[in-house]
Amino acid sequence: MNHSDPQPDTGETQARLLAEALPFMQAYENKTVVVKYGGHAMGNAELGQAFARDIALLKQSGVNPIVVHGGGPQIGRMLSQMGIESRFEGGLRVTDEETVKIVEMVLAGSINKEIVALINAEGEWAIGLCGKDGNMVFAEKARKTVVDPDSNIERVLDLGFVGEPVEVDRTLLDLLARSEMIPVIAPVAPGRDGATYNINADTFAGAIAGALEASRLLFLTDVPGVLDKSGELIKELSVAEARTLIRDGTISGGMIPKVETCIEAIENGVEGVVILNGKKRHAVLLELLTEHGAGTLIVR
Ligand SMILES: Nc1ncnc2c1ncn2[C@@H]1O[C@H](COP(=O)(O)OP(=O)(O)O)[C@@H](O)[C@H]1O
Ligand SMILES: CC(=O)N[C@@H](CCC(=O)OP(=O)(O)O)C(=O)O
Q: Which of 97, 42, 33 is nearest to 278 (CA)?
């Protein structure tokens, strides 16, 4: 080593980064941030650990983070191991009685506990829940229709035990917000009819964020955010602009229900929703604590 080389001054760098992040940390103090952690964003062990560290750091900075997770690809793998084929209609998994049991097992069981363990390993207290716990969320059978592009005839879809959240009771989440605990919630909920429903994780996160009037709702997916026609990231969108992009076909496929959930959440009182790439390490902190953010911010 040549001693005349300048020494890396990590102390200085860390102090500068902290000074930059401080005003953002203060702005989110005591505020609720709902983070939807999608199955595609989960990636490898290192990414999972970085995600858990971000959530732990938010809690340590006085923010109230709530994790709602998905696990679509993981459910698909379990179903195929059991010889059951996955079938989707309008982006939702057709869920019969046998499938909903496996969905609950994978989402509220293994994935939920994996995320809890990752956050706990960062020195925090995570608590794994689903809509059933504390009567938090009640669902009703989803009533979805699709229009046949050839005949233009509307068709009602029977998706089985796919639900839509219709009641959110914030009692348990308010209690946890005042505690050391970080809620990690799986998108499974009971119906008043006694059935168990499988709910799309984006929809579930939107309902939780709306009921809590969260400051931010972050959707961690596997693209940088909403992209324009030439594939460039759009940094900020109003609700009206987002609707135009859906109408003109710039937003398509799985991004349509995601952006529609964003719009609904904003209309229900969430201040801002961000779609960002969960495969980028520390995406949550980069979004919340830096000037330029990390994805697409959708606001009123
Ligand atoms: N304008 C757009 N910008 C970004 N992604 C888009 C756009 N239009 C369609 N998409 C698609 O939407 C996908 C994200 O939705 P989805 O796969 O449902 O996410 P997740 O499984 O993480 O919830 C992207 O991978 C991309 O293929
Ligand atoms: C009804 C419905 O489709 N439910 C989803 C729930 C999980 C989910 O949404 O996970 P991602 O966020 O990883 O896609 C499913 O069964 O796949």
A: 42
**Domains along the chain?**
29-299 (3.40.1160.10)
Q: Residue 274 above 70 pLDDT?
A: yes
Distances (CA, A) of 175 to 69, 172, 178, 212, 277: 20, 5, 6, 12, 31
| 199-227 residues labelled b (16+ CB within 10 A) or e (exposed) | bbbbbbbbbbbbbbebbbbbbbbebbbbb
Residues paired with 68 in a beta bridge: 36, 185
Distance CA 174, CA 166 (A): 19
**Among protein residues, the one whose CA lies closest to atom 6 of ligand 2:** 200
| Any ligand 2 atom below 6 A from CB of 115 | no
Q: Tell me, what's the pLDDT at 9?
A: 65
Per-residue confidence band for 213, with pLDDT thresholds at 50, 70 and 90: very high
Q: CA dist 87 to 96, 144, 267, Å?
A: 11, 15, 31
Q: Which of 6, 202, 225 is nearest to 93 (CA)?
A: 202
ipTM for the predicted complex comes to: 0.95
pLDDT tens figures, 50-67: 999 999 999 999 999 999
Burial of residue 1 (CB within 10 Å: 0-12, 13-18, 19+) is: exposed
Which position has the token pair 């959110």? Answer: 168
Q: Give 240-258 pLDDT, tens digit per residue.
A: 999 999 999 999 888 888 9
Ligand 1 centre and the CA of 120: distance in Å? Answer: 30
Q: Assess whether the C-beta atom of 186 lies below 6 angstroms from ligand 2.
A: no
